[in-house]
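Fold it.
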Amino acid sequence: MSNRYVYGVVEGDTVEFETEAVAGADRVYTISHRRLGAVVSDIDTTDPEETDEDAQRHDEVLREIMDDDGGTTVVPMQFGMAFESDRELKNVLRGARPAFRRAMNDIDGTVELGLKLVSEADADIDREAIEAAAADRFEPIADQSVTNDLFSDRLVLNRSYLVAEDERETFDEAVADFEADHDDVIVQYTGPFAPYSFVDVKIGAQQ
């Protein structure tokens, strides 16, 4: 019997579509318990290897879920969540139900956007001034933001922003304006993503 690979948790049980899914699966569907649904595909292991291809498919499926039926709130799971049976998965939904509900309320109607500001090679920049300018420009638009690792000396800012769908265009314009105003930094703008950085629901096949 196939195991279940989980992409995220939604309200209800209506998400179902054909797509290129993790580990060669071609369909995702919902396993539900008391109005919560885990969106899954079939997989032959509970310990999937995280290849670049499957990591990308995981993210792409989450985007498709977010776009499903005119817009669906999904609490995203990190890559690698797989369960041996529907019963085990429903037990997780039952046990983490309050946490999933809180997460859904927190991220309803939002997306995650990523922004990196990278200094031009050999540029003499005022890092604090650029950080302050970015905060003034982006923080008022976002509902929340979190700092990510500055993994390079040239990386001035690396943040994820939780932005309401109806503020997306405003945020896009703010990024474009910031880029036009700062010739000394390279702007790397990514998304939308499911709001990984803004949910904290701890689950696992082994409890």
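The chain has a mean pLDDT of 92.
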